[in-house]
Design goal:
295 residues, alpha+beta, 18% helix, elongated
Length: 295
């Protein structure tokens, strides 16, 4: 009897020891996803409002005055492996580990007054509930607003290319998560301030404008992560049914080197600009396509 009781105590202790890892493993997955998600947001934020021409020209004095207005759409790779791992611990069916993070924006850019610069403004957002084909238990909802200023070192006249340096800022707020029922839920809400510096080179040949550029991106991000589970997660023999944590990424630890490039086609006043970007540090790719009226 004592032997049987000893085996039972050992078995129960072992089960609780294994289950006690659940919350620790869950939190590790959340930490790892946060470290993946923030760079994805950074890349997605700056890979919009991209103009093929390194300098669009002055608004005044110029004829015609130089400006552009249009819309664009973009995609950025999101590695959701750790989000899936955390969600599976709450009982969710796994989604794909390789996801595409989308952006849709409206933007405008105007040339400078007398001085060789141009200034842009952009506003965009995404709400997965409005898109058919996305699982109901998966949520992506975010909003971003900002712009940039570019100073032309070379204006692209004659045989010379256009060369500009620039700086920009974007404010981003959004949420990503799975589940919205009393059974289980997991979400990360993030507010992010992103700054970047850029250099871009382009050359227009009749109606075709190839370009290449480089950005240094940094962000301050504050995230709130909440979760709940009807079945709970074990922590030291205690069953936990919900949790809350806050995570912060500062400017200096989030610096990203990104190369970008593509080409633009001018079809009269209508321009099509195709762009792509590569984040060396995090190995994240981005791409986008813009259509705009540009003079």
């Amino acid at each position: 009897m004592k032997k049987l009781l000893g085996v039972l105590v050992f078995t129960v202790t072992t089960i609780f020891s294994i289950n006690a890892q659940n919350l620790a493993d869950f939190n590790r997955s959340l930490d790892s996803f946060h470290n993946t998600y923030i760079p994805t947001l950074q890349n997605a934020t700056v890979q919009q409002n991209v103009y093929a021409k390194a300098f669009i020209g002055k608004l005044f004095p110029a004829f015609p005055p130089h400006f552009g207005i249009g819309i664009d759409g973009g995609v950025t790779r999101l590695d959701a492996t750790e989000l899936n791992n955390a969600a599976s611990m709450l009982g969710f069916t796994k989604l794909t580990n390789d996801m595409i993070f989308p952006t849709f924006s409206a933007n405008a850019r105007i040339g400078g007054l007398f001085l060789p610069f141009d200034l842009s403004f952009s506003c965009f957002g995404f709400d997965s509930s409005k898109i058919k084909g996305i699982p109901n238990d998966f949520t992506v909802n975010w909003f971003c607003i900002g712009g940039d200023l570019r100073w032309a070192i070379l204006d692209g006249s004659g045989l010379l290319p256009a060369l500009s340096i620039g700086a920009g800022y974007y404010y981003t707020k959004g949420i990503i998560g799975v589940g919205n029922s009393s059974t289980a839920s997991l979400s990360q809400e993030t507010v992010m301030h992103t700054g970047f510096a850029s250099i871009q080179l382009s050359k227009t040949i009749i109606f075709f404008t190839p370009y290449v550029g480089f950005r240094a991106i940094c962000s301050k991000a504050d995230s709130k992560i909440t979760w709940s589970s009807a079945s709970g997660l074990m922590n030291g023999g205690v069953r936990i049914y919900n949790g809350y944590s806050e995570k912060t990424t500062d400017f200096w630890t989030s610096i990203i080197p990104q190369v970008y490039g593509g080409f633009g086609l001018a079809l009269g006043p209508v321009n099509l600009d195709l762009n792509g970007g590569w984040d060396f540090r995090n190995q994240i790719w981005s791409a986008g396509l813009a259509i705009r009226v540009q003079l």
